Amino acid sequence: KECDWSSDVCSSDLSSIPQSFVVHQNFPNPFNSSTSFEIELYKSENISINIFNILGEKIKSIDKGYMMPGIYRYTWNSQNDFNESVPTGIYLVVVQGIKELKVLKIVLLK
């Protein structure tokens, strides 16, 4: 497990193969109503992107499915899967591939 707390990105590589994707830090962070982040895929892969609160509860499913190599930009509007605003706090963007899991810590301030 490798963590760079200065950039709030934590990676867990589940094998010794090279990275298949990178998650770039969101901007702005902290944010007020919406924030954006990018995922850079180096090979085709099944990817799921979810947002969890600090208690580990999934609050938002961003994307899931087979994705081709490229750069994907996502914007989160600080709402859950029921289109309700979530409270101020620390949230975790979890990007999971077949053999890799990356976590991005983001901060919502209202």
How would you sum up this structure, described in words?
It contains no helices and nine strands. It has 110 residues and is an all-beta fold. The mean pLDDT is 87.
Which structural traits does this protein have?
three-stranded antiparallel beta sheet, 9 strands, single chain, six-stranded antiparallel beta sheet, globular, 110 residues, mainly beta, 0% helix
Provide a compact summary of the structure.
The protein is built from no helices and 9 strands. The protein has 110 residues and is mainly β.
Q: Runs with pLDDT <50, length 5+?
A: none
Number of helices: 0
Overall pLDDT score: 87
Q: Level of helix content?
A: under 10%
Question: What is the makeup of the main sheet?
Answer: 6 strands, antiparallel
Beta-strand segment tally: 9
User: What is the N-to-C order of secondary-structure elements (H for helix, E for strand)?
Assistant: EEEEEEEEE
Strand % is over 45%
Radius of gyration: 13 Å
Structural class: mainly beta
What distance separates the N and C termini?
A: 32 Å
The largest sheet has its strands arranged as: 1-2-9-8-5-6
Overall shape: globular
SSE layout and pairing:
Blueprint (H helix, E strand, L loop, with lengths): L1 E3 L4 E5 L7 E3 L11 E7 L3 E9 L4 E10 L2 E7 L12 E8 L3 E9 L2
Antiparallel strand pairs: 1-2, 2-9, 3-4, 4-7, 5-6, 5-8, 8-9
